[in-house]
# Entry
Amino acid sequence: MKSQPGNRLRAAQAADRHWPQPTALVDHVSARVPRLLLVDDDRLHLKSLSALLRAAGYEATPVDSACGAMQKLQGSEFDLVLLDLRMPGQGGNAVMEHIQTASVDVAVIVVSGESRIDAAIGALRRRADDFVRKPYLPADLLRSIEHTLQRRRLLIENRSMAQQLEHSERLYRHLVDSSPDMIYMLDAQGRFTFVNDRFESLLGIERDSLIGRHYSSVIQDDDLPAARYVFHERRVGDRAARNVELRLRPLSLLPAQPDASSGFKTLLFNSVAMYGPTMPLEGGGASTYGGTYGVARDLTERKRAEERISHQAYHDILTDLPNRILFRDRLEVAMLQAMRSGCELAVMFIDLDRFKMVNDTLGHLLGDDLLKEAASRLKDVLRAGDTLARLGGDEFIIMLPRLGSREDAAVVARKILECLQFPFVLAEHEVRISASIGISVYPVHGTTIDQLLAHADIAMYRVKADGKNGHCFFRADMLDASQYKLSLDRGLRLALERGELEMFYQPQIDVRTGRIIGAEGLMRWRHPDRGLLTASEFLPFAEEVGLIVPISDWMLETVCRDLSEWTALGADDVTLAINLSPQYLERGDFVRKLVEAQGRWGFAMSRIEVEITENVSIRNPQHVIDQLNMLCRLGVSVAIDDFGTGYASLAYLHRFPIRTVKIDQSFVREILHAQGHCPVVLAIISMATGLGMNVIAEGVETTEESAYLEQAGCPRMQGFLFYSALANAEFMSLLAEQTAGRRPASWHGHHRSGGQGRLLFES
Ligand code: C2E
Ligand code: CA
Ligand code: CA
# Structure
């Protein structure tokens, strides 16, 4: 039997008219033998068809009714159905409808005796893949089967390819949109044709409203010339525009914002030219310029970080003031200007007095707060052109350019001292500090930066040595003194070994009787070159360099020895006041050492009075309170030194077992200015006596002071009006006179009242 062309209608109108060569029958997609479902009510036909197909290598499942076919299709997967149309009961069309409605993925070849053309068309409309008319040549049927299966394979491959494409398209989209960088495309006129999501979040406007917009609406005006270079790039490859920084307007819908630097984002652009559909360029033909595309990276954070870093390189972190480097820069510029204009300029070195103590007693955090507050007060004193810098620690430096006269600098210095006078409130503490200010003037005190700084520093040290809280200009004769300071550290270490330290005693008087009732031990250093140095000239330094503990050990031993000598003279009612460094009380093991010294020298503990300052260890008050209580139990009394100048509140003082209050020199000095009424002194005296404490005034230099103190109820005094500190031998001869029943020799020979005061007691 020969096949006729009319017998077979092709469903596929595809161009491919060549039958595929029957290669391996194995389905490439599923990698298995194709499964065919044979549906025909003619069992005989079914049987021979099965045999034919199996012989051809297919898996064939025969079924003799539409119903059975639908059941089979439900249960297992087939690749192809060979379907008879006319069957008793439901026909082949019902099967095809089922395939469509239930979306069964299977190809269908109608194998039918139907000769009407509309039957074939109807079958193909129902999406049959081919139509083979019975009777057929087996070869024709097999070819149709092979062809249909081949098309099905292609279809499946296509479908999965399309899926892959869609997936990879989605992947690229995702990569582009979630890129940390901005990706954009501009047309030849410079209008956005594509931007990724990052643009949206960065600029705060929607992607769609950016499309079609010209780049100049988002770039800051100043950067437009540079932008032109990037966005009209016509070169490709290595020569294309790279790494151009442009600043974007944030809400580009708004016109350029007046506050320029604030909201701008800085982006780093790379751009590449695009050329239209690649045309053959032979013969000099040009391809069309299509615009640019590229990547932009947000540099805003990095820019800010860079700014921060460079700010930090020139500023002090704590106070945000210029640091030494920036100060030197500015000083250099100002010196040049001063030189040209023939002006003077001033450099001021400021050191906060007592800062170290605050830091040690209240801790570094509050110390930092104090520095910040001090810095802001200093700033308020200065004018716009002045520079205030922090050199570190509690050292500040100021430059005043264009000095009208030197008095201008002095005025500023006084204002600074004034502004620091008010107490600083740190947590619950009220702290008082002052400052020592040294001033050097360009060009008279130096013509280089280093000279000016060094000389201002030296002048500052002079203020410190002279009792702090003041200012002074540099003088050439200060240079010697500063050399000496350098050698102090080494010298002080040797002083102990060489026995250059001595204890002096300043008598304490009861003016009602004129008797010496006690003495305060004051340390002196008999310096090999500089002569006799007072405690204030070297002890603060000893505290700083950590020599105070060994020096205090020596002091304790010496005063105990001297006290036992006084007793031997018969002066067994004279008390001894010793000054205790806070450091010594905190970690010097003082109580044990005192007890041991008593064992060696044998004296009554009641004759010892320990002087502490108000601010003694506020950081660890419990430890100090314990120590002071132990001293109390031993019979030692405690005096508050420099009362009223520290920063402990009165309430706080109640926690310490205090016997005596020493009225500070500064209050005694107020008596002279007060013209007969000095409420602070009265208040201290009445408070102390009211609490059952002793009170003694120190630094009494004039008879006016002494008279006022006595009538105010404070007859115990100490000061140059009576005696300065005396060497032990000298002090003992006074004691000897007193115990012999005589009033001690007149205070003539000892007082240093500078002519101010008349002597009260003369024998
Ligand atoms: P301070 O305890 O307030 O001592 C009083 C200071 O005033 C002493 O200075 C004394 O010489 C001086 N002075 C006494 N009377 C007058 C006067 O009428 N007018 C004037 N203007 N000054 C007078 P100095 O000896 O330089 O002692 C300074 C500080 O050094 C003392 O202040 C004390 O805190 C400390 N200090 C002295 N000796 C020792 C010591 O042995 N150990 C310890 N840890 N500290 C000591
Ligand atoms: Ca004292
Ligand atoms: Ca004092």
The radius of gyration is 52 Å. Residues 1-29, 252-261, 279-283, 748-763 have pLDDT under 50 and may be disordered. DSSP finds 26 helices and 28 strands in the chain. The pocket of C2E (ligand 1) is lined by residues 506, 521-523, 534-536, 539, 552, 555, 579-581, 611, 641-642, 665, 699-701, 719-720, 725 (CB under 6 Å).
